[in-house]
Design goal:
By secondary structure, the chain is of the alpha/beta class. It has one domain: Metallo-dependent phosphatases (Purple Acid Phosphatase, chain A, domain 2). 29% of the residues lie in helices and 21% in strands. The strands form two sheets. A six-stranded mixed sheet has the order 4-5-6-7-9-8, covered by helices on one side. The chain has a five-stranded mixed sheet with strand order 3-2-1-10-11, with no helix packed on it. The longest helix is centred in the middle third of the chain and has 18 residues. The mean pLDDT is 90.
């Protein structure tokens, strides 16, 4: 009998709130999204999520890093029996500052942000993770998880910026060598390592970004280039991210990059998220944008 495929589900940018009726923090004054908690309850109970082999949460689990929002997240996973098959990485909203902060150097700000994220993870009994880290899913597949929020945010203006940094990239190189015989290597991070130019975005049929949007959300070029070169050199098959709240699927220098929509944000009455079917031999990964009505 043929062995079944290994199914990964990617859920991203849930923006869970302290209370169910709380709106999502957004720049606009009117029409802010509500109902993220209820949408996540239903997603977590959907057959396609419950029957998956592993779930990758690519950041912004919470909207403001509130501990009550984290409690809701972990309680929902517990109730749906999903807690034991998850990988979770931080998003900027999980460790964010949406207002002004007292002046500190970058190291202190990064430490403060990480404490906020780790406090939320501790509610679920997850010890502090040192990024990047590797999750070995089976004999053929490993997930390399990054903290791309390593910026040291000073205000609401800069809270969305991404940064990986030399130390993570250097450790990533060593981990890639250590797991060089793994057939399926998948990188997960919150921020997009490839926000296209206006010309490329138009060719792909996606919305362009203003200079201000790019400045506020884009990783430094040295991070993007180093990550891309390491992925190409070590035959990483897939890089997946969230953050931009839009579905993207593109191939760059032999590596496939996929960006997730916000899983709890409805589009025409449907909720969208990516699933990945991996063959038992690891020779083929088939991504699919799944859409369900809740």
């Amino acid at each position: 009998m043929r062995e079944k495929n290994y199914r990964l589900v990617q859920l991203s940018d849930l923006h869970l709130t302290e209370k169910d009726a709380d709106p999502r923090s957004e720049p606009k004054l009117l029409g802010k999204l509500k109902g993220m908690n209820d949408a996540f309850r239903k997603l977590a109970n959907s057959p396609i999520v419950k029957e998956s082999d592993w779930i990758l949460f690519t950041g912004d689990i919470t909207d403001k890093g509130d501990l009550n929002a984290w409690k809701f997240f972990w309680n929902t996973l517990e109730e749906c029996d999903l807690k034991k098959k998850c990988t979770i990485i931080p998003g900027n909203h999980d460790m964010c500052c949406l207002g002004a902060r007292l002046p500190k150097d970058d190291k202190e700000l990064i430490a403060d942000d990480l404490k906020k994220f780790h406090a939320g993870m501790a509610i679920g009994g997850i010890p502090e993770s040192k990024y990047p880290c590797v999750i070995r899913l089976n004999d053929n597949m490993a997930v390399f998880a990054f903290d791309s929020c390593n910026k040291g945010n000073t205000s609401g203006i800069t809270n969305a910026m991404g940064h990986i940094g030399y130390q993570q990239l250097e450790k990533f190189a060593r981990l890639l060598y250590k797991f060089r015989d793994i057939k399926v290597k998948i990188v997960i991070l919150h921020h997009s390592p490839n926000i296209p130019s206006d010309r490329t975005a138009t060719e792909r049929g996606i919305a362009t970004m203003s200079v201000v949007e790019r400045w506020g959300m884009e990783m430094p070029p040295e991070d993007r280039r180093a990550l891309r070169l390491l992925c190409v050199a070590h035959k990483v098959r897939l890089v997946i991210h969230g953050h931009l709240h839009r579905a993207e699927d593109r191939r760059i220098n032999s590596v496939r990059y996929i960006g997730a929509p916000a899983s709890t944000q409805p589009q025409n009455g449907e909720y969208a998220f990516f699933i990945y079917e991996v063959t038992p031999s690891g020779t083929k990964i088939t991504p699919k944008l799944e859409k369900i009505k809740l």
